[in-house]
Structure formats: structure tokens, C-alpha cells
């Protein structure tokens, strides 16, 4: 059965965008539709769809600039209809590894949303092409 996915991107240097594009290609190949949100705004994102949040972490554990307004928008909103997957990109040489993705994961669940799988945290030191790991993981969680 085909579903619609909202792909929400948080990126500073583009790696999360590559992951989002690779996830979109996989969804398309599986017969699903999607919308990619490089400048996410809650007004444009359906809460009745499945969300795929792809975000990196920047600075001292902050979300990238482009997704910060979205994170503020969902702070006090019921996300009860939201079902989501979270993919985080980070660097384990920092003690704030994947804090951006962990923050999004917490905001979604704290506001009533459901994670359909444990979040994926990709160490870019170990996986310099994170989209390969993300697509492999995504295929597995979609099949379950």
C-alpha cells in the first residue's frame, strides 16, 4: 500500500540533504510519494503523513539553522497523529554526537508523536557516505 512521506531536512553543509534525497529515491522506487522540506515549516507539513526527519548537529549540539524555526513551531503542538523516523548525522569525536536528531526525537515523542523505529545515528567518521547506511536501515525498518 502506497503512503505519503514528509521528509524534513536539517542541514548546514548538505550531508543531510543527500540522505533525504537518497531516502526519497528509495520511497519512489517502492511506489510511495514524498515531499522534501529543505526549509521545514509546520504549515506545509501534513501531520497525518509519516515523517522522516534527517538532521545533522551543528556547533555545540544545536540543530542546523534551517530547521530551528520548525523545532520551535512543534514545541507546543500536539503531534499525536505523527508517525516518524529520525535519522541523525554526527561526529563521535564531539560529546554532542547527534544531539540535533536526539532533540527532534524528544520533541516528537514528548508531544505525542510515535517513532516507528529506534532513531538511526550515523557517525560520519565511520560512514563517510551516510546515505548508503541510511537507505539500508530505512529499507529494513520499512519492511518490518
Fold blueprint:
Blueprint: E1 4-10, H1 15-29, E2 33-37, E3 50-56, H2 68-73, E4 83-90, H3 99-110, E5 114-115, E6 120-123, H4 130-143
Parallel strand pairs: 1-2, 1-3, 3-4, 4-5, 4-6
Helix pairs in contact: 1-4
Walk me through the structure.
- The protein is α/β, with parallel strands linked by helices.
- It has a single domain (4-143), classed as Rossmann fold, CATH 3.40.50.
- The chain has four helices and six strands.
- The protein has helices at residues 15-29, 68-73, 99-110, 130-143, and strands spanning 4-10, 33-37, 50-56, 83-90, 114-115, 120-123.
- Strands 1, 2, 3, 4, 5 and 6 form a six-stranded parallel β-sheet that branches.
- Helix 1 (15-29) packs parallel to helix 4 (130-143).
- The longest helix has 15 residues, at 15-29.
- The two termini are 14 Å apart.
- Flag low-confidence runs: none
Q: Give the overall average pLDDT.
A: 96
The number of distinct structural domains comes to 1
Helix content: 25-40%
Number of helices: 4
Radius of gyration: 14 Å
**Reported CATH architecture:** 3-Layer(aba) Sandwich
Using the alpha-carbon principal axes, give the shape: globular
Tell me the CATH topology. Answer: Rossmann fold
CATH domain class: Alpha Beta
CATH superfamily: Flavodoxin domain
Give the helix/strand class.
alpha/beta
Sheet of most strands: 6 strands, parallel
| DSSP strand tally | 6
Termini separation: 14 Å
Order of helices and strands: EHEEHEHEEH
| Percent of residues in β-strands | 15-25%
